[in-house]
Design brief:
The complex is a heterodimer of chains A (287) and B (281).
Chain A: E1 16-19, H1 25-31, E2 37-41, H2 51-62, E3 65-68, H3 82-95, E4 100-104, H4 124-141, E5 146-149, E6 155-156, H5 163-174, E7 177-181, H6 182-192, H7 196-202, E8 208-214, E9 217-218, E10 223-224, H8 233-246, E11 251-254, H9 262-286
Parallel strand pairs in A: 1-2, 1-11, 2-3, 3-4, 4-5, 5-7, 7-8, 8-11
Antiparallel strand pairs in A: 9-10
Chain B: H1 10-22, H2 27-30, H3 34-37, E1 49-50, H4 57-79, H5 81-87, H6 89-102, H7 117-123, H8 130-148, H9 158-162, E2 171-175, E3 179-184, H10 188-196, E4 210-217, E5 220-226, H11 228-238, H12 243-251, H13 258-271, E6 275-280
Antiparallel strand pairs in B: 2-6, 3-4, 4-5
Helix pairs in contact in B: 1-4, 4-5, 4-6, 5-6, 5-8, 7-8, 8-10, 11-12
The chains are: A alpha/beta (287), B alpha+beta (281).
C-alpha cells in the first residue's frame, strides 16, 4: 500500500517513474516493463504527428503519464506563448496527464528561445511577474501548474531573497505546486555556496507534487546538471531528508545523456523505493 | 572598493544576458559585442552578476554562453546527420554558428530550428562542396518533415482496381501529408544511405540528376529513388493534375507500352501508401 502524499491537491503518489526517451521506445513497446509512471518532455510531442505521438499513445494507454516542459518561459519578459499553451493543454488531455510541470526560469526574450533554463533574479519585481503568469497558465490549463527548481550557475546582485523563499512566496501567491528536483538543489547549493538542507527544509511539504533525481558532472569549479550518470549518495541523502517531510511523493529519475539500457535507468530509479522505505522505517522508529 | 549593485530590471537584464549567450567565441568577447553593450557596459558586469568562490561574474555567465552553441549544433546534427558527416565537425560547427546568428530559434520546439538550413547553406560562402551539401540538406529536411507530418490514412490499394474506368481521367489524387518529392542535382540519396549504413566508402558526389520520393508508412520514413519519367508523372499527380492529363503527358516520354508502365507505377505508389485519397472523376 502506498502512503498518501500530503500535497494539498490530492495529487497521487504515482510511485517511481522514469523519463520516456526515444532510445527506449522499442524496449518499452516490446517488453512492456513494470514501471509506475512515465514523464514525457512535452515539447517533444507537440509538433509531431508521427512515430513519437504513436508511441506516446500506446504508452499512455498502459502507464500513468505526467508532462514536463522546458519552454513555457514562465519567467520571461515576453508575453506568454499562447500557441504553446494551447498545444500543452491538448497534449495533457490526450495523455490524461496527472499534472503538468515546467521550470522556474526563462528560456528566451524578444521572441527567441535559447533552449536553456536561464536563472531568474530573485526580486520582488520578478516574483510579481512570475506569479501573475503562473495564475494565467493555471487558468488556461484548468489545473495548478507545477514548477521545478532549475540548476543555476549564476546569481544576480539584485536578488533580495534566497530561492527557497522566492519559491515559497510564489507558490502561495500563485497557488502552484513544486517539482522539487533534489539534484538541482544540490547543484545550485554547490555553485552558490548555500546549505542544500536549508533549502529542502524550507519548502512547504504540502506543495510538493513530484521529485526529480539525476546525475550531474562536477567540473571542480562548479557542477553542471548533465543528467548523464547515477545519482550520488549526497543527493540520495537529501532526497530522504525531504521525503521525511513530504511523505511519499511521485519520484522520477532523469537520464538524458549517455543514456544506458532501459533496465539500468529503471534500476537506478528504483533505488528511490528503497530510500523511501528506509525513511518510513526511521520515521516509525522515531515515533 | 566594491561597486554598488545594479538592478537592470527584468526585461533589460534578460535582453543583456541573451545577447551575451548568443554570441559565439569566448565569453570575454561576447560581453563586448554590440548587442550586449547596448544593455550593459562590460565594466559593470560585477554590479549585476555575483562571483562565486571559484568563478568570476563573467565566467559564471560563460557557463551558459558556452553551452548555447553546443546545444544548437547537437540539435541540427540530429536533423542533418549526413551534412554534418560530409562537412566534418569543425566546418559543420562553423556553419551552425553562422546559421543560428542569422536564424536564432524562435519556437518552443527545436523541430523548427533547421527549416531554413538548406537555403542558408545554398547561399553560404566558404563551404567546400556547397552545392552537394545544400542538395543533401534539402533531402534531410524532407526526411525530418515527413517524420513529423500529421498522420493520415492511406488510400487502400484495392481502391485502384475498384475505381470505375470512366472516373479516372478527371480524378485528382491527394498525397498523404507525410510525403515529399524532390529533384536533386547530385546523388544525395545514395550518400545519405551510406551515412546511415556507416559505410565510409561513399558514392561519388559528382553532378548527376536524381529524384527521390520520401514518405511515411506505418510510422517509418521511407525513401525511393525514381527515374525522371516516374518523378515527372508522380509530381504531376501530387500537384493535383487530373489523372488523364498527367498520363497523357507522361506517356509521351515513355517507350513501348506506356499505359502499362504508368499503371504499374501508380499501383506501386498507392500500395506504398503515398496517397490518402482521390477526388473528382
Amino acid at each position: 500500500m502506498k502512503p498518501e502524499a500530503r500535497n494539498r491537491w490530492g495529487l497521487p503518489d504515482l510511485g517511481i517513474g522514469i523519463g520516456l526517451r526515444t532510445v527506449h521506445y522499442p524496449h518499452i513497446l516490446e517488453k512492456q516493463p513494470e514501471v509506475d509512471f512515465f514523464e514525457i518532455l512535452s515539447e517533444n510531442y507537440m509538433d509531431t504527428g508521427g512515430r513519437p505521438l504513436w508511441v506516446l499513445d500506446q504508452v499512455a494507454d498502459r502507464y500513468p503519464i505526467v508532462l514536463h516542459g522546458v519552454s513555457l518561459n514562465i519567467g520571461s519578459a515576453d508575453p506568454l506563448d499562447r500557441e504553446h499553451l494551447s498545444k500543452l493543454k491538448t497534449l495533457a488531455a490526450r495523455t490524461r496527464a496527472h499534472w503538468v510541470s515546467d521550470h522556474l526560469c526563462w528560456t528566451g526574450v524578444a521572441g527567441r528561445n535559447t533552449h536553456d533554463l536561464l536563472p531568474m533574479p530573485l526580486t520582488e519585481e520578478a516574483l510579481r511577474h512570475v506569479a501573475a503568469r503562473v495564475r494565467t497558465v493555471s487558468d488556461v490549463l484548468e489545473r495548478p501548474l507545477v514548477l521545478e527548481n532549475a540548476s543555476t550557475y549564476a546569481e544576480f546582485t539584485s536578488s533580495s531573497m534566497p530561492e527557497w523563499e522566492f519559491f515559497g512566496r510564489l507558490m502561495e501567491d500563485a497557488d502552484c505546486g513544486m517539482l522539487l528536483d533534489v539534484n538541482n538543489v544540490y547543484v545550485s547549493a554547490f555553485n552558490h555556496g548555500f546549505d542544500p538542507e536549508t533549502y529542502v527544509d524550507a519548502i512547504d511539504p504540502t506543495r510538493v507534487a513530484q521529485y526529480h533525481l539525476a546525475g550531474h558532472t562536477n567540473k571542480g569549479t562548479h557542477i553542471v546538471d548533465t543528467h548523464n550518470d547515477h545519482v550520488i549518495d549526497a543527493v540520495w541523502q537529501l532526497y530522504r531528508r525531504s521525503v521525511a517531510r513530504t511523505g511519499n511523493v511521485a519520484t522520477l529519475l532523469e537520464w538524458d545523456a549517455d543514456i544506458p539500457a532501459f533496465d539500468v535507468v529503471h534500476a537506478e530509479a528504483l533505488k528511490a523505493r528503497v530510500h523511501r522505505r528506509q525513511e518510513k522505517a526511521v520515521a516509525a522508529a522515531a515515533s | 572598493m566594491p561597486q554598488p549593485p545594479l538592478d537592470l530590471g527584468l526585461p533589460r537584464l534578460q535582453r543583456w544576458m541573451q545577447a551575451v549567450i548568443e554570441q559565439p567565441g569566448a565569453v570575454d568577447e561576447a560581453i563586448e559585442a554590440e548587442a550586449a553593450r547596448a544593455e550593459l557596459d562590460p565594466a559593470d558586469i560585477g554590479r549585476v552578476i555575483l562571483p562565486s568562490k571559484t568563478l568570476t561574474a563573467v565566467e559564471r555567465v560563460g557557463v551558459y554562453q558556452g553551452m548555447y552553441l553546443l546545444r544548437m549544433i547537437e540539435a541540427l546534427e540530429g536533423d542533418y546527420p549526413a551534412v554534418a558527416h560530409l562537412l566534418g565537425a569543425d566546418a559543420f560547427a562553423d556553419l551552425v554558428t553562422r546559421f543560428v546568428a542569422a536564424h536564432p530559434s524562435s519556437s518552443y520546439t527545436f523541430n523548427r530550428l533547421g527549416r531554413q538550413f538548406p537555403e542558408f547553406l545554398r547561399v553560404s560562402r566558404g563551404v567546400r562542396g556547397k552545392a552537394f551539401a545544400a542538395d543533401l540538406a534539402r533531402l534531410e529536411l524532407a526526411v525530418t518533415e515527413v517524420f513529423d507530418a500529421p498522420e493520415s490514412p492511406a488510400w487502400p490499394v484495392d481502391a485502384v482496381a475498384k475505381r470505375p474506368t470512366e472516373a479516372w481521367p478527371g480524378s485528382v489524387l491527394r498525397p498523404i501529408a507525410a510525403f515529399r518529392l524532390g529533384a536533386y542535382a547530385y546523388p544525395v540519396n545514395a550518400y545519405l544511405q551510406s551515412v546511415k549504413d556507416e559505410n565510409h566508402d561513399h558514392p561519388e558526389v559528382g553532378r548527376k540528376a536524381t529524384y527521390v520520393a520520401v514518405w511515411r508508412k506505418r510510422y517509418e520514413v521511407w525513401r525511393l529513388d525514381l527515374s525522371k519519367p516516374a518523378h515527372d508523372f508522380l509530381r504531376a499527380l501530387v500537384r493535383g493534375r487530373p489523372f488523364g492529363k498527367a498520363v497523357a503527358s507522361a506517356a509521351r516520354g515513355l517507350q513501348g507500352a506506356p499505359g502499362e508502365q504508368l499503371f504499374r507505377w501508380l499501383r506501386d505508389w498507392v500500395a506504398e501508401g503515398m496517397f490518402e485519397g482521390v477526388e473528382g472523376g
